[in-house]
Each structure stands twice: as structure tokens, then as C-alpha cells.
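Field notebook, page 221. I keep forgetting to write these up properly, so this time I am using the form the group agreed on. The chain and the ligand, cobalt (II) ion, are recorded exactly as supplied. Prediction of the bound pose follows.
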Amino acid sequence: MRQLLLGLIEFREHNLPLYAERFRELSAGQEPDTLFITCADSRVAPNLLASTEPGELFTMRNVGNLMPPAYADGTSSGDLSEASAVEYAVSVLKVSNIIVCGHYRCSGVEATLRGDRLGLSDNWLRHVQDVREKHEERLNCEEDFARRSARLCELNVIEQVVNVCQTTMVRDAWERGQALTVHGWVYGIHDGLLNDLHTTIGRSDELSACYEQALQAVAGR
Ligand code: CO
């Protein structure tokens, strides 16, 4: 804790002056171009890995980088946090990109694969369990745990991209002609490489073809 507080003082005294102009602009408001949905994992540092500055990424984080699927009426099956972040980014900030960025060796994904019982978070990770069950056959083809984990991290991102595309906020934005593209990436903590899952979707009618294409790419790995 002491280290954190000292860090804040260090930031204010040494780093803040370097960004003085930028923060003066930002104090008037934000105009980020991207909603970045990623895992709560401490090793994933969005601004660091994308070399972006404060004000450039509107970020939503949770365990497993999940966007809970919408019910048939369009309402979210998660709590209001995820839906609100997407709504604010799309309808108010009018971002042009939404990136779902998972990462390899994700603890949430691996707990699901091992069938660990953690407590309350089992309810949240049920969404990853659904992805696992949906793609069980594909995952069983992998010879070891490390490969199954990597494939489930990728499949989980693909399914979250679909969930984002199916929110009423994104569908409505596309219907009114707003330029908005949804992407799926998986980040390697060990090598810093971003694996683009080729789920770049900019219209409702691109969704199913893109989904199939992304699944085939995962199957080919
Ligand atoms: Co994670």
C-alpha cells in the first residue's frame, strides 16, 4: 500500500508534468476511439501493450473479458456494468472500435477447464463454461492442457465478440449507420504478441460468416 501511495506522489511530481498539456485537454472531456474489453488480470496493461496515451482507450475489465450474452429481448444476462459500459461507449462516446482482448493462460479460463470450484465467481465463470461446452468436441482434440487452455482462450474471445455484436446497443448503432467495428484479439503475456482472431465485424450481416471463419482459423491451429 505504501508503495502505491509513494507511486502516486512520484507520478504527480515527475510524470504528470510530462503530460501536463494532455491532461489539461482531457480535464475538459474524453474522446476515445476505442472500447477495450479485457481481463481484470494484473499482467494485462491495456495502455502499455497498445502504446496508447491516457484518453485513448475506454476500458471495461472483468474476470475472463466477458460480455454476458443478451436474452432474447436484448437485455443483458450479466449485471448492468458491462451493458452500461458498451452503451456509454457506443451511444455517447461514439467509439469506432470495440476490441475484446483476451489473454493466454487466463486464470478464469483455466479454472473453468479444470472444473475448479471457487465460490461466487463460479456463477460468473458459467459464461466460460458455456463456451467450453459449446466447443467441447473441438477442445477434446487438443492433446494437452496447455493447448486446450490456449484454444479456450481464443474461443472465449470469439464468443464474447458475438455477444457484443448481438447487444441492442451495437445492433442499433449499425442500423442507424454508425461506423463501428468489433474485433477479437488474444494477447500473449510471455511474448507480447497479439493474436488477431480475424473477427472484424462492421455490420450485422457480416456476423455469421465472420464467426465461422474465426472458428475455422482456431481449428487450424
Ligand atoms: Co484472465
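OBSERVATIONS:
- DSSP finds ten helices and five strands in the chain.
- The CA atoms of residues 81 and 185 lie 22 Å apart.
FOLLOW-UP: compare against the apo run.
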